[in-house]
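G., the chain you wanted modeled:
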Amino acid sequence: MVPVSRTKLYKLKKQRIAGGISLVSYPGHRFGVFRFVVASILQRGHSSYWYAKFRDNRGRQVLRSTKILVNPHKHAGESVAAHAARRRENRRVAYNLANDWEETARGNRTEAQVRKVFSCLSRAAGRQVEFLTCQEYIESWLFAKKLDVSSGTFARYQGTCRFFLRDLAARDRENLYLEEITPQDVETFKTNRLASGIRHNSVRADVKTLRSVFSTALKQGKILHNPAEAVEVTTEADIVRRPLSADQIEKILATAAGTEWETATLLGAFQGFRLRDSVDLVWESYDPTTRSITLVPQKRRRRNPTPIVLPVHPRVETHLSSLPRPENPAAPLCPTLSSLPTGGPTGLSARFASLLRKAGIKQSSSSGRGFGRTRNAYSFHSLRHAFVSNLANAGVPVELRMKLSAHVDRSVHSRYTHHEQERLRSALVSI
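Predicted structure as tokens:
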């Protein structure tokens, strides 16, 4: 920052037109104190577009594609001179766009000025620049995501976006343009969700969804900053998911004897399968000759649909051999349970909770206010925790445990390992 005279300022303004020197005024000097900032354009890698390079109001360098071709496609019959003139025009348009982005990032332009400049740039570049409202962009984002994610994930995305738009409407901000959304809007949404009784982990997922929405907009060049990046949500001290003990598992199996829940429980306790994988397992997945089960875990079907082959526990093998094998190899082992949804008041999770009560297993839970979900210490997933913990307590190496449980992340796997107190005590006295 340097002080400049009026004569010097006039010369700098002329240079601004030719060279692109951006002047930012500061109070405290007779003629003002100014800082010089130069926006520029460049080619990046093998991209065919000009990239704008500038600094935002925090001094951070920004590199963003202008989507303006460096070398526009040559028209049929176009002369070399005319094509060169269009190249120069594209360069000028891209440079003006870089300067405008810099001015906008620094807050030196009003909304009307920005839209006017973009309108002129759109005509010069021969392409239309859209100004979408937040609701319009979110709807288009959801439409694209519906084809890429599972129905359950899409339902969660849709719910978060619906609640966010409702929160904006409640504060008379429903008609905001996408670039007008601020971190304070996301922060207020987070605060209101927590105040309504939604659990921290659910709100954390909401913020992550909004980050994904605005991150896509940022990559598309529709906004300059991701307003959800500055919002943090700490994880809550939830009740720890407990593994079921061997006695408790036997009580469940005795209560469920002769039903499909016996099959599902054995797969969860002795194969470590998740609830959905247990009830959806089909007969052709089980090969009695090789004593193995082949499946693609539901949680990784989209990202990595490669089947995994797992050995069958002797107790599971004995149980499956006692069941009548249907003629249709694609028939599920648990036909009734596989037709039920996982959640809901009559879904699989609720039915297993009822089975725990019938088996005399005392439940402990934590619940949120409002319509926040109740989290139980014991659920079908506790069988998977017990499976991993039993392997660890038997001294099975972590690499083998991860293969048997189909875990790919060691940190995630560690949350499933609950060492028995006696094993910890013997380890302690050994030193």
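The mean pLDDT is 78.

Shout if anything looks off.
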